[in-house]
Amino acid sequence: MARGRPVFVCQACGAVHNRWSGKCDACGAWNSIVEEASSAPLPGGTSARALGRGRVVALESLSGSADEAPRLVSGMAELDRVTGGGFVFGSVLLLGGDPGIGKSTLLIQASAMLARSGHRVVYVSGEEAAAQVRLRAQRLGLGDAPVALAAETCVEDILATLKQSEPPRFVVIDSIQTLWTAQVESAPGTVTQVRASAQAMIRYAKTTGACIVLVGHVTKDGQIAGPRVVEHMVDAVLSFEGDSGRDFRILRAQKNRFGPTDEIGVFAMTGDGLEEVHNPSALFLGDREPDAPGTAVLAGLEGSRPLLVEIQALVVPSTLGTPRRAVVGWEGSRLAMVLAVLEARCGVRLGSHDVHLAVAGGLRVQEPAADLAVAAALVSSLLGSPLPLDAVFFGEIGLTGAVRPVAHPGPRLREAARLGFKRAALPPAAAEAAEEAGLTALSVPTLDALVARLAARADQTRMKEA
Ligand code: TYD
Ligand code: MG
Questions:
Q1: Nearest CA to ligand 1 atom 10
Q2: Of the four listed, 213, 241, 285, 360, which is most buried by Cβ atoms within 10 Å?
Q3: What local confidence, expressed as pLDDT, does residue 416 receive?
Q4: Is residue 65 domain-resident?
């Protein structure tokens, strides 16, 4: 291959520059530009194409056969839920996550399930030796599953191996960062290599109809390293999250061409590998303390699945000039908004208090329906008065202080009733749904109304104690 002029490629976004510089103009990252040996074009071009002559391709109509995309169902319900009902044939999925979170474990388990149900499965590990993968599989009781195992990092060798026998239905590449192709000269792990290798695997998937899962590592700031550029090329991006200090793991779809992106799958890491958690509310509610002020249960929704989680707040007088605002598992800007509305519309002064907010169990909540539960937890902590143990909260708070309706109150309330809750503080529009679910509705038209109710309750308890 002819050696081109050296190029400088940003390892964060893949932008190509003529000169080295400390900062990438395209994405603003610092120290991310690396010299790569060659400006060779990406593989795929043939000499005919290079000369400008194209091959004629058959054009099709939209009205052709449009069956539901055929899918490969893994049999792990939590995984299938996140992929949108199984892996789509001919698709490529990128699985990202911190090192040690359990990506390889999840995929060896899924591979074994698929292989046991008669599909041809190839697991290619570029990080661990075949013996290590085998050892882990045996320890997980999967030693008997007919998974074909290889430890290889060269794309050409992998493709030659795959093409040599009956085409596999499911291929795992662990990980994309270790792959390299002889088509480009850059070092393994660079953007150019990762992109060219991913392209070769994608082309293989599209031509053979195999489902390919690429594992990608995540950098400190949460991006799938290098393969940010790969995210655009693949059909789906899943992320595997969780605290390594805790046992449960959450699988979340960030992008999915063939399914929803708001579904989550919940697993628990045990001594025997990943176990599916079919009843996550029980897990996230954990052991609730009856007399702890500052905790409120959110009747939340993740995708189509209702999920009850405990929101914990701690409001304490601050010793700092600028009080601290710390949030775990929720958006900081959303907290700032709730605090501003509490201050401006309800007269709750928090300007000289530190505020700490956490979603119990390490879950990350994204929906605005959490506003009301957050506000209740904050006010409860400030008053030093616990909220009723049998109540759940949900509702979006507007800047005017109005509590707005949220999507799908029914499933939220039914889940709350199933877990033994008796009351729900909610937007007035959802009151009927609460009665239907067998809960007492506490309609809160405005945040002010909730604050007044909580303050009255705190007074009552204080008088009873006196
Ligand atoms: P692994 O799948 O190797 O993570 P990744 O591929 O994302 O880097 O998981 C490694 C971690 O999982 C390791 O810290 C040990 C833990 N683990 C268990 O707790 N139980 C098990 O059965 C297995 C296989 C791993
Ligand atoms: Mg691994």
A1: 100
A2: 213
A3: 93
A4: no
